[in-house]
Design brief:
Layout lengths: L13 H4 L4 H9 L1 H13 L4 H8 L3 H13 L4 E4 L8 E4 L5 E3 L5 E4 L4 E3 L6
Antiparallel strand pairs: 1-2, 3-4, 4-5
C-alpha cells in the first residue's frame, strides 16, 4: 500500500465524496468498458490511453471517449506522465477513493458505489 492511500477499511472522506454527483457516478460506471477502465487504473496505476487500449484490447479512440466521461464524473483524473515533458497525459484514480476491505482487497469508495477491484492479468 502506498503512503497516499487511505487506511485499510476506511471509507473515502465525506467531503471528497460530496463533490461527486451520484447520478453521474452511476451513469459513468454503468458501461462495462468504463467500469473496467476504473478498475484497471485503480489496480495497475496511472496509464496512458495507448497503454490502457493495449491492456483492455480496445481501440485508443474508444478508451479516450470513455475516459472523458469518467473525468467529467470526477472518477479519474489526468496527470502528467512521470519523467515526461508534460505533453503526454496519464490517467489515474485518486488515492482519496482507494482503500482496502477487511480481507485486504483493494476497493474504490465513491460514496454511492463501492467497487471491489479484482487483479488483472495483463
Amino acid at each position: 500500500m502506498s503512503d497516499d492511500a487511505p487506511d485499510a477499511g476506511m471509507p473515502a472522506a465525506p467531503e471528497v465524496v460530496s463533490l461527486l454527483e451520484p447520478e453521474a457516478v452511476l451513469a459513468a460506471l454503468a458501461h462495462p468498458l468504463r467500469h473496467r477502465l476504473v478498475c484497471t487504473l485503480a489496480g495497475r496505476g496511472a496509464a496512458s490511453v495507448n497503454v490502457l487500449a493495449s491492456r483492455l484490447g480496445e481501440a485508443p479512440d474508444a478508451i479516450s471517449k470513455h475516459l472523458s466521461v469518467l473525468r467529467k464524473a470526477r472518477l479519474v483524473r489526468a496527470v502528467a506522465a512521470p519523467g515526461e515533458d508534460g505533453r503526454k497525459q496519464f490517467y489515474e484514480t485518486s488515492a482519496l477513493f482507494r482503500s482496502h476491505d477487511a480481507a485486504g482487497k483493494l476497493v474504490l469508495d465513491f460514496g454511492v458505489v463501492l467497487l471491489r477491484v479484482e487483479p488483472t492479468g495483463r
